[in-house]
Amino acid sequence: MALNKDKNLKLFFSISEVAQMFDVNESTLRFWEKEFEQIRPRKNGKGTRYYRQEDIDAVRLVYHLVKERGMTLAGARQKLKENPDTTIRHEEIVNRLKQIKEELLAMKSAFEALEASRN
To answer: Which of 53, 71, 104, 113 has its CA 20 to 30 A from that of 6?
Structure first.
């Protein structure tokens, strides 16, 4: 039986960690939790929230629709209800393109530094 080889892989994240990931307030996450059934963090007896990767993925999707695409909460809810697979795929493509852009900009900076050191 294979054990989890990556010991740094966290299974749960606090609300403050998730808020930091998306640069939003904790109150925004609590509000989105009420508005979107896809966001369902676990809670302990004290009510402390623990976000799993699935919850973070749902937050990422809501963040994409509301913050990046400028949709209203009602519009985002409708989009997720009508066509969740296409919406998820679109967000994944946008996220991957952002990563590629960051990699290209880093390569450009490294190339410019190399050129500058030759002159």
So the answer is: 104
Domain assignment present for residue 53? The answer is yes
pLDDT of the chain, 119 residues: tens digit per residue: 444 445 457 789 999 999 999 999 999 999 999 999 989 999 999 989 999 999 998 999 999 899 988 999 999 989 888 877 777 787 788 778 888 999 999 999 998 988 888 87
How many distinct structural domains can be found in the chain?
A: 1
Beta-carbon neighbour count of residue 22 at 10 Å?
A: 17
Query: Is residue 48 one of the residues assigned to a domain?
Result: yes
Residue at 38 is within a domain: yes
What is the Cα–Cα distance from 114 to 112, expressed in whole angstroms?
Answer: 5
Which pTM value belongs to this model? 0.67
Structural domain that includes position 71? 15-118
**Number of residues that make up the chain:** 119
